[in-house]
Amino acid sequence: MTSGPREWTRRHPLAADALLAVGLIVAEAVFTLLTPRELWPRPLPAALGWSALCAAPAVLRRVAPWPAVGVAVASLALPALLDFAPGTQGLTFVVLTYTIAARRPVRQALAAAVVLWLPVALVNTLAPPAGVLEIGPAYLVLNNLLIGAVAFSVGRTVHARRTSTEALRERARVAEENQRALAEQAVADERRRIARELHDVVAHHVSVMGVLATGARRVLRRDPDAADEAVATIEETGRATLRELRRLLDVLRTDAEPAADLAPQPGLAGIEALVDQVREAGLPVTLRVEGTPGGMEQGVALTLYRIAQEALTNALKHAGTATAQVRLDFGVDAVEVEVTDTGRGPLPEADRIGHGLVGMRERVGLYGGVLRIGARPGGGFRVYARIPVEPAVVRPA
What we know:
The chain has helices at about 5-10, 15-35, 45-55, 65-75, 80, 85-105, 105-125, 135-220, 225-250, 270-280, 300-320, 355-365; strands at about 285-290, 325-330, 335-340, 370-375, 380-390. It is an alpha+beta fold. Helix 8 (about 135-220) packs antiparallel against helix 9 (about 225-250).
């Protein structure tokens, strides 16, 4: 419940300080009413008006502290003009000294204290208020300086406490972030370790399947029962391998990634649909296919699709009024994909590598391929990738 008024005060400093000034005026009015009537300033309404004027700098203590100091020092001329010193004047000096000491650096706080209390000492020495000569100017000077020193010390104590609290909060925030980073790093390290172990298991299963398949093919004609047993073992091992692969993907998937979609991953067949989508989006694009795809790994087909998708997306964003072409060339030992456009290309940005470029390099590098990206000599932009593929093995009948 205590955070409510503090939050309101922080959000509305001018209104809160106006209430403080009203409180100073009310305090002086109550104190005046408690004193004997013959000691009241005359006329009383005018005296309360001068008290309000002396309390006005307190309204600006946070939004404009230095103008408030200047107005407060100027109010020291009132005792000489009115033959009395409003009580809010001294209270305002104390409030300003405390506020600047609590909220400003030490040099500014010291400067404000000197600017406030040195004129007070001079006025009390050269032109003391009427009725206090029997007390003595020295006593007045020492009393005021002591009050100023106490207000300054309390303000600096509050400032030190606030600084220490902020430092502790910052330290706790940094420690929490470090702890979270360490925890995330530990999770990532553990996931990598598990992934390596599962990779070894999957690789072992695949190797066993290959050996069994070779043995089954060799004994298929002379010992069908043995071949059938080997094929059954391959079937069971294949299912176990799929289960381990699912676990491997679950381990590698981070919390920020969505769950795996049930739809199949796009491949060569999806490139034609992709070209149609880009054409409908406003970029005239053609597809040219050279050679015959033949047997190809699903991962290579997916890589070709992602490269075409990224290149066409960039062409839509940066090419402007242009045309584009996607060329697929299926050779004996390699497959090539080339996406060109006649636009202006992306704007040059020094030392900036996009996530799409990094992703394409990672995918092509995974299969030992080559990726070339850059502007075309005749204008436009070009993305070219060449991925080696193993030629199809023809089994003897």
